[in-house]
């Protein structure tokens, strides 16, 4: 069974959890329709999140030296982020060293599908099967003179293992869709059915209105209704990190 170990620095604590599929902006969508997009749900939960141990606000004045980011911790706490690199980059020091199985890297990025105004996460890939070095999670301001805020318990980092070299083994190519008649047939069925469904949605008494949305992809079915032979997932069930002091 593959392992992902977080070695916590002595005297520190790491707040980490399986990433949640839920997002505030998705909750606020009309009839929560955003959750009908299965690829979005899977991506949201595709890994683990590191959480802010305390809240803070920060502002960047637009210049490049380190002192141009001002970080203000909540009363009685220490801010978990600092200005370390300059150039509008806000840095979180991750208080643990991750170890993956041989041949696996760690993809590190910001919380997926959780946009934040005026600041954006930077991503990295780390060889955590051998590296004795910690890494930082960095965000770069996209607008100056704008206060940003991270709340206590808010995710600031999202990570998951990836097999090293797996992308380089892939042989990409392009082909006309007509070269794959079975796929072309299913795609045509989907396209025609989608257009008819969207038209029927305009009729309050139609079956489409009662159905509200088409669920074939969500259920792992082809447009013809045939089951696929793929290992279809409609949700991820990641394990919690277990403390073994």
Protein model, in words:
There is one protein chain. The protein is an alpha+beta fold and 245 residues long. It folds into 2 domains: 4-163, Deoxyuridine 5'-Triphosphate Nucleotidohydrolase, Chain A; 176-237, no CATH class. Helix content is 16%, strand content 27%. The protein is built from 5 helices and 14 strands. The chain has helices spanning 24-27, 38-44, 181-200, 207-211, 216-219; strands at 4-8, 16-18, 48-51, 56-60, 69-73, 81-83, 89-93, 96-100, 104-109, 119-121, 124-126, 136-141, 148-150, 155-163. The strands form 4 sheets. The protein has a 5-stranded antiparallel beta sheet, with no helix packed on it. It has a 4-stranded antiparallel beta sheet with strand order 6-7-12-10, with no helix packed on it. A hairpin with an 8-residue loop joins strand 4 and strand 5 (69-73). It is globular, with a radius of gyration of 22 Å. It starts with a strand and ends in a 26-residue tail after the last helix. It holds the Pfam family DUF6065. InterPro entries: DUF6065. This is DUF6065 family protein. It comes from Bradyrhizobium brasilense.
**Cα Rg:** 22 Å
List unreliable stretches of 5+ residues. none
In the CATH scheme, the class of the largest domain would be: Mainly Beta
Q: What fraction, in percent, of the residue positions are helical?
A: 10-25%
**Whole-number tally of structural domains:** 2
Estimate the mean pLDDT confidence: 93
CATH superfamily of the largest domain: Deoxyuridine triphosphatase (dUTPase)
Question: Assembly type of the shown chains?
Answer: single chain
* Number of extended strands: 14
The CATH topology of the largest domain comes to Deoxyuridine 5'-Triphosphate Nucleotidohydrolase, Chain A
The DSSP helix count reads 5
Label the structural class: alpha+beta
Largest sheet: 5 strands, antiparallel
| Strand order in the largest sheet | 2-3-14-9-11
- CA-based shape: globular
Question: What is the CATH architecture descriptor of the largest domain?
Answer: Distorted Sandwich
Q: What is the CA-CA span between the terminal residues?
A: 21 Å
Strand percentage: 25-35%
